[in-house]
Amino acid sequence: xxxxxxxxxxxxxxxxxxxxxxxxxxxxxxxxxxxxxxxxxxxxxxxxxxxxxxxxxxxxxxxxxxxxxxxxxxxxxxxxxxxxxxxxxxxxxxxxxxxxxxxxxxxxxxxxxxxxxxxxxxxxxxxxxxxxxxxxxxxxxxxxxxxxxxxxxxxx
Length: 156
Fold this sequence. Notes:
By secondary structure, the chain is an all-alpha fold. It has helices spanning 2-21, 35-53, 57-62, 77-96, 99-150; strands spanning 27-28, 154-155. It has five helices and two strands, in the order αβααααβ. The longest helix is centred in the last third of the chain and has 52 residues, at 99-150. The chain starts with a helix and ends with a strand. The chain has a two-stranded antiparallel sheet with strand order 1-2.
């Protein structure tokens, strides 16, 4: 049950940055520009920002960053956890009189702890990929905003 809760919370948290990606800056015609002039300036600033940054926000927003899914494996966290657990378990088991049994229990506990670390690392990598995509969109919108401000619009 706890795992399902953690997964649900993670999915909600991971979806939050995606909502902010689509927020284009709002341009107010501070110098009384007409609607047709604003539409023309908007289009020209979109092209300029796209050419200047090399970023097309429609393409970036429509292709979310790849997310690591499935079991978190390959980082060696479980193996390192098992080794640490076995060493610690053997030491405790030696004190209690059965180092082998202690090592086995420690290895199992260490493997579980390593798996937890592997899942945390996987979630961190997924969040980092989304933050990188957000930064890419922000770079484009900074260029777009600069263009619109240069044409006399107030940007928020």
